[in-house]
Amino acid sequence: MLIRYKRSYEKIAMGLLSFVPSEKDLKKLQQTIKKYEEEESWQLFLWKDEDIIGIVGIEVVSETKAILQHVSVNPSYRSQGVGREMVHALMDLLGSHVVIEPSDLTNEFFYKCLEPKIKEID
Fold first, then answer.
1. Nearest to 71 by CA among 103, 41, 97
2. CATH class of the structural domain 2-121
3. pLDDT tens digits for 19-40?
4. Where are the domains of the chain?
């Protein structure tokens, strides 16, 4: 289940974001969290199963378009479809009127997540 980020989740969010290759540097990681906290167009969601095990972040660029900026899953839960579930839940949350596009960093993963949906349509 996706839950909206709030400041009380800061340490968990930073821990999960630190698994993203572009967020390895502490200063960069702090800037990213600050952006999600302060900029309305940047929205961060955490994936909660029994525990919080993943994170997904978007930049809303218009009423009909969002860019997938970050996706990260706790290494203990990888290769179990959690990332794909998060992306699909995000699509459902935003609704069909919002197109999600990947950033350069999330491009490969994003299209991998869509493969089953594309096959279902065929």
1. 103
2. alpha beta
3. 998 898 899 999 999 999 999 9
4. 2-121
Q: How are beta strands 2-4 and 65-73 bridged, if at all? A: unpaired
Of 16, 8, 23, the residue nearest 86 (C-alpha): 16
Structure tokens at 35: 């952006």
Helix (H) or strand (E) holding 49: none
Residue in the structure block whose two tokens are 């989740």:
9
Buried b (16+ CB within 10 A) or exposed e, 72-98: bbbeeeeeeebbbbbbeebbeebeeeb
What tens digit of pLDDT does each residue of 67-118 get? Answer: 999 999 999 888 888 999 999 999 999 998 999 999 999 999 998 888 755 4
b/e per residue, 45-54, with b = 16+ CB within 10 A?
A: bbbeeeebbb
Give the integer Cα–Cα distance in Å for 100 and 102: 7
Nearest alpha carbon to residue 57 among 74, 80, 41, 78: 41
